[in-house]
Amino acid sequence: METLLVRIFWLSSMSTLTAFEKIYALFFYFCQFLLFVIFSAFDVRLADGSSSTEGRVEVSVNGVWGTVCDDYWSIENANVVCNMLGLPQATAAPKGESFGSGSGPIWLDDVKCFGNESSLFLCKRADLGVKDCAHLEDTGVVCGPPSGTVATLRKYLDY
After folding, report:
1. Average pLDDT over residues 102-122
2. Are 130 and 109 in contact (CB under 8 A)?
3. Model-level pTM?
4. Closest of 93, 134, 108 to residue 42, by C-alpha
């Protein structure tokens, strides 16, 4: 945040830039700030799996944990989850409470990822909290086993 304010101050003091260039740069920095705020409000975890690389997909929206419905769930969606967790690509995308039923809100439904998105929230999906399913349709993920470096980092960072 401090860096953003410094950039804006620096930008406003640049007399060589045209008004359009200043507005464009301010818009760019504002968008960066919004993305930071948006993605710091979302998180993902795997629950009730037999290891840290598998489980029911749970997402946090502003600190409230909920689940993801399995409508349109695919290996591409699972790859995005594994990527968010810093794990190798998914080996399976189980549906229908394979890891038990979750609790709380069902935050995401009709998720359709290409597989290269950095977050489930960037995939095509229904609006947050809009769903036509129940917890018996909670989705899961099985990621490949963690590599030595990632596994070691996660162990020490308690991620």
Report:
1. 92
2. yes
3. 0.68
4. 108
